[in-house]
Amino acid sequence: MSQSGTCCQRCQEIADSACTKIATASAEGTELRRIFRERDLTTLFQPLVACDSGRVLGWEALLRGPHGPLHRPLDLFRAAERHGCLVELDVLSQRLAIRRFAESPAGSDGSLFLNVMIESVQTGAHLHNLTGPCVENLGMDSNRVVMEISELHPTADIGALAQAVSHFQREGFRVALDDVGAGYNGLRLWAETRPDMIKVDRYFVHGIHASDEKRRFLEAIVRLAHSLGSQVVGEGLEEAADLEVLVGLNVEMAQGYLYAHPAPVPPFPTHTPADHPATRRDEGPTGQTARTLAEPHESLLPFHSVADVADIFLRVPHIDFYPVVKPDGQVLGMVWRREFMNRLLYRYGYDLFHRKPINRLMDRHPIIVDVRTPLETVSRLITDSDFGHRKEAVILVDNGRYVGVGTFTELLRLITDIKVQSAHYANPLSGLPGNIPIRAELQRLLDEGRAFTALYIDLDHFKPYNDHYSYEDGDKIIRHVSHLLQRVSGGEFVGHIGGDDFVLITRLSSRGEAIAAQLIAEFASSIGRFYSAVDREAGGIVGKDRQGEPRRFPLMSLSIGAVHVRADTLSHQQHLSSLMTRAKKAAKAAGGNTWYLLENDGPQVANPENGNPPFVSVANAT
């Protein structure tokens, strides 16, 4: 019998098994039996795309029932659960998806993402007897299949599920955890299973460009995923502005209507690579990433015996650790000399373990980071974690594949050099980068043809405050503004020009307006505490203007001039500085607590009140 015929025969056996379980006393049961008997299931495919390049990396298979009450997959699966044939429906839908994908134009070269119910995985025989052979029979390699773990209910036995997931991975399949942030077991399941990929629920992706809360959540998820060696997929992507945020947060993949709607034949994106943001993924605030730590280092295969590894440690006494890496580059863990030798020195330790594979004695939770992770983030991962004496090295991966190790000693040296250099050019009052780093950062972005937004922040009525109170009180205001800028920026570049002038640069150009609005709102709500009760009640202070004449000055406010620089439209920093100054003056002229946005390719004059699009002015009522 042909391979395809064998697969078809197994599908028929699964359908027959389901039909024997289904009672036909109800209309739902009758329809469910018909669906199995006729295999009336549709498979649609939606692409998963690399955020930075627009390259298609695979397709997710999406199940649909026949038109009617069981068309939606959730309704279909719940009906199958009620009739005791959930596993059969899950496995049959996967086998049909594999066959239809293998027969499509994408089947010779793409990855297939299959949804797998937790309830189905926990049957134990699921992978070995069903899906695995089907993949082989249809001529696909298991490493081209990604199992997406989905769930209908909370799962009590996470340990058993973790074992099933490990079985998938040992057979060469990759594993993705679906709907992180919305599922029942999300974070605990993630911690126990160590999946290859994390799929973030669409709620946190849709509209992220306009939501600081969603951005902070996703930023934390990405940092955690990369520290564990997992890639991140954003689901439900519909807007280019949201894609820009995903790129800036180092999210590897995304799927959604922005690229393509689900289709019976695996579709290719309508959103071309040329449309993708030019934002680079490999920069932190200092421009240095974990890539600078990477040193080649010999690794061990998971089937190396404990005896072989003991011999290696004895022959090479100057090496204190070895990563354990699968042939395809996936990191499984780390073997630390001290821990390893201590286990063997226990009574009967060598006799018990010397024939076992090394993955039995390896550390399964070393620090693993993507090479694009900012050095500052790597440092925080180490200092915020309790790794005891294992603080010797971090394993580095590139898109989930092993590239080398970085020692903590080298990381400390690099971080120290960064701090020394930053201190040398920092403003002594605020501690923020001064004029030289500001100019270097702006020129670098211009040289690279990057799109970004530069905000020029100026304090209104600062000098009268300084004269009325004291220079010490004025210094408190400067430090307050610097802290506010750093917090609101979310890790973007913040510099202190001098006096009461600051600069904030965001590479996520869509965030410029949101940052300006938040800065003004928080400054306006906090500045009152720096005035006396009498002055707060009066709404300001009496001081002298620039001509030495007495006048009343209101409470301090912010004027923010923002320039949105489109990619490859400016080359000289002097031109940009002129635009930033012009935008700031326009904001000051419009009144206190105002931001003013200038598109650098728009007209040079506009009235913010006539709706002219190159300029936007928003005043915060205080």
UniProtKB/TrEMBL annotation:
It holds the Pfam family GGDEF. The keyword Nucleotidyltransferase applies. InterPro entries: CBS_dom, CBS_dom_sf, Cyclic-di-GMP_PDE-like, EAL_dom, EAL_sf, GGDEF_dom, Nucleotide_cyclase, Rev_trsase/Diguanyl_cyclase. Its EC number is 2.7.7.65, 3.1.4.52. Residues 293-352, 362-422 form the CBS domain. Residues 273-284 have a biased composition (Basic and acidic residues). Residues 450-600 form the GGDEF domain. Keywords: CBS domain, Hydrolase, Nucleotidyltransferase, Transferase. SUPFAM superfamilies: CBS-domain pair, EAL domain-like, Nucleotide cyclase. One of its GO terms (molecular function) is cyclic-guanylate-specific phosphodiesterase activity. Residues 25-276 form the EAL domain. Residues 268-290 are annotated as: Disordered. This is Bifunctional diguanylate cyclase/phosphodiesterase. It comes from Guyparkeria halophila.
